[in-house]
Write a structure and sequence with these properties.
The chain has helices at about 1-15, 20-30, 35-40, 50-80, 105-120, 135, 170-175, 220-235, 285-290, 310-315, 325, 330, and strands at about 125, 130, 155-160, 160-165, 180-190, 205-215, 240-245, 250-260, 275-285, 300-305. The chain has about 350 residues and is of the alpha+beta class. The structure holds 2-{3-[(4-chloropyridin-2-yl)amino]phenoxy}-N-methylacetamide (2NL).
Length: about 350
């Protein structure tokens, strides 16, 4: 008989009550008028008289235990808002800070540019940051006495080796090593001998594009860059081509977009012109094609170059270039996480 009391005690202790249904089940099974504890009290008549006192005490202890458990769980379930479960959470505590990093804004913008050109068939090219004079200047039609070759503008390493001043040097290598059709994008780090300020740095980032095939025209250049601008800055953005000069393209054009800040009505960013420059472009000079082993009688192409810092500053309204290299967490944390 005592075994039965022990068995029910174990059951009562093991019973898990997470919701109101379970609480009611507990009451019916154990503490209720027709529950197992009531049955145990009824059984007292079958107990040997000398053991009835001990038996009664045992069942009473069980009754108290079960009733205490019932009361406690009933209280907890009523306290929790949905009555479904008791959550021991203090919602007023400050959250555990996220340890997830953010992507550098230049990385975010570079990858966005790459994704946009990938969709129209451009692949990626890379090349060395330490270049020779041929790939950085001569192949690109820079005359021997061009000011860009000056010590004041270019970091020379040794002899005719230098730190590339643009990623056109990568494009020269592509043309030397591949046959048209060519559609390639070359993002990368470039170097110029300049004093560091809010608007200039001696290390910065560029992305250049190259498109060579039979019958490529200036209309292809315009359409490609129009598509890019719409994707990158939104469908409201207008594009404008301004005649310009580069040694490696003819004709050449500066690329302007309608000011993102004032939508063309005039503000400080666009110096009240309504337009901001994002890069340069042009039809590849036949002399450059010839220098790289491509027949200009058969093929033509266009090229363009953009500064990644400049586009990032326009997109996020960043006023000082130095923020990109200072690694101030208050700045970096504002950009999208991984
Ligand atoms: C700018 C202007 C430009 C190119 C880059 C290029 C490359 C080869 C041949 C011809 Cl291999 N052109 N690249 C063409 C026009 C403009 O960049 O303002 N960049 C930030």
């Amino acid at each position: 008989m005592f075994e039965k009391v022990n068995k029910v005690t174990q059951e009562v202790e093991a019973f898990v009550i997470q919701n109101k249904e379970a609480l009611e089940q507990f009451r019916i099974s154990y503490t209720g008028r027709k529950g197992q504890i009531a049955d145990l009290f009824d059984d007292i008549k079958n107990i040997a008289p000398d053991q009835r006192k001990a038996y009664g005490q045992e069942v009473n202890r069980l009754k108290e235990l079960a009733q205490a458990k019932f009361n406690q769980m009933q209280e907890q379930l009523e306290a929790s808002s949905n009555g479904q479960e008791k959550l021991n959470i203090d919602f007023t505590l400050p959250p555990v800070p996220s340890t997830l990093g953010t992507r550098h804004p230049l990385t975010v913008v570079r990858e966005e540019i790459i994704r946009i050109f990938e969709r129209i068939g451009f692949n990626l090219s890379e090349g060395p940051e330490i270049e020779d004079d041929w790939h950085n200047f001569t192949a690109l039609n820079f005359p021997e006495n061009h000011p860009a070759r000056d010590m004041q503008d270019t970091f020379f390493v040794e002899g005719n080796m230098l730190l590339r001043t643009h990623t056109s040097s990568v494009q020269v290598r592509v043309m030397e090593n591949q046959k048209p059709p060519i559609r390639t994008l070359s993002p990368g780090r470039v170097f110029r001998n300049e004093a560091i300020s809010a608007r200039a740095h001696c290390v910065f980032h560029q992305v250049e594009g190259l498109f060579i095939d039979e019958n490529v025209s200036f209309a292809d250049l315009k359409q490609t860059l129009y598509y890019f601008v719409q994707e990158m800055f939104g469908p409201e953005t207008k594009i404008r081509f301004r005649p310009s000069f580069f040694p490696f393209t003819e004709p050449s054009a500066e690329i302007d977009i309608s000011c993102l800040i004032c939508k063309g009505t005039g503000c400080n960013i666009c110096k009240h012109s309504g337009w901001v420059e994002i890069g340069g472009s042009g039809m590849i000079d036949p002399e450059v094609l010839r220098n790289c082993g491509i027949d200009p009688e058969k093929y033509s192409g266009f090229a363009f170059g953009m500064g990644i810092e400049r586009i990032t500053m326009l997109k996020y309204q960043i006023k000082d270039l130095r923020l990109f290299t200072e690694n101030d967490m208050r700045f970096l944390r504002q950009f999208q996480s991984l």
